[in-house]
Design brief:
The chain contains twelve helices and four strands; from the N terminus they run αααββαααααααααββ. By secondary structure, the chain is mainly alpha-helical. The strands form two sheets. The protein has a two-stranded antiparallel ribbon with strand order 1-2. The protein has a two-stranded antiparallel ribbon with strand order 3-4.
Length: 248
């Protein structure tokens, strides 16, 4: 572990133990460095790193504060990481597997907690998707909002942030563009309709099954369109980088 990593760990420990609770202001740099037994240089580097991670917020002319430490803030970097992985077909399929593991269970939970207002929000985006079935940009936007509304109904902010990060907007756009080109958009819209119908009935097992079917079909479509140049892994052929089969 580098000296900077150790310094970061010391500040994180102050936050973890409650010595620096969310919203609190850090001591001035010389005082913080002395308190932790660090050089001012190390203290400054540690603060910069924690600011990038959204653990700390540096306010010019005011000082450095601990952020709210909300999951939506701390995990928001996941989406950026996912966007960077788009050119790696293996990583992309790994992410789809994670989505397949999490989203059906989240949808099942949503069925037990969703309010009338939440259902109306899901229905609004479903209707907008149908109206925009030939407009990839609008389809993509309302598709993301549809799933966000479903997972939001769980009331679990960490789950929502994780799933939003995994299901990047650019990845969704690639999929919708390909579905429209393949004339498969109608089937996918019907899958969204099935999810809404199950949620409306507050049927948790049916909601899970509808979401699993939808995500699994999307995953299989992605596998076909990414090509099959890579070797098999765990008994499943993992697509490679065949540009001729990649959705643009």
């Amino acid at each position: 572990m580098s000296l900077t990593d150790k310094a970061i760990g010391q500040i994180r420990e102050l936050i973890r133990t409650g010595a620096l609770p969310p919203g609190s202001k850090l001591p001035p740099e010389p005082e913080l460095a002395g308190q932790l037994g660090l050089s001012r240089n190390l203290a400054r580097e540690a603060v910069k790193a924690l600011a990038v991670a959204r653990v700390l917020e540096v306010r010019r002319g005011d000082g450095t504060y601990v952020t709210s430490l909300q999951p939506s803030l701390l995990l928001e970097g996941l989406g950026g990481a996912v966007e960077l992985l788009q050119s790696d077909s293996g990583a992309l399929l790994d992410l789809m597997e994670v989505r397949r593991l999490l989203e059906p269970l989240a949808t099942a939970l949503a069925a037990t907690r969703i309010t009338e207002e939440g259902l109306a929000e899901v229905k609004r985006h479903l209707d907008a998707m149908r109206d925009a079935r030939d407009d990839v940009e609008r389809l993509n936007s309302h598709d993301a909002a549809f799933h966000r509304a479903v997972v939001s109904a769980t009331g679990n902010e960490s789950l929502l942030t994780l799933l939003e990060g995994i299901s990047g907007r650019t990845i969704r756009a690639r999929i919708w563009r390909g579905l429209v080109d393949d004339q498969a958009a109608g089937r996918t819209l019907a899958e969204h309709e099935a999810i809404y119908t199950a949620l409306y009935a507050r049927d948790s097992p049916l909601s899970q099954a509808a979401a699993l079917l939808h995500v699994s079909n999307t995953e299989q479509w992605l596998r076909r369109h990414l090509g099959s140049a890579a070797p098999e892994r765990d008994g499943i052929r993992t697509p490679g980088h065949d540009a001729g089969h990649t959705v643009s």
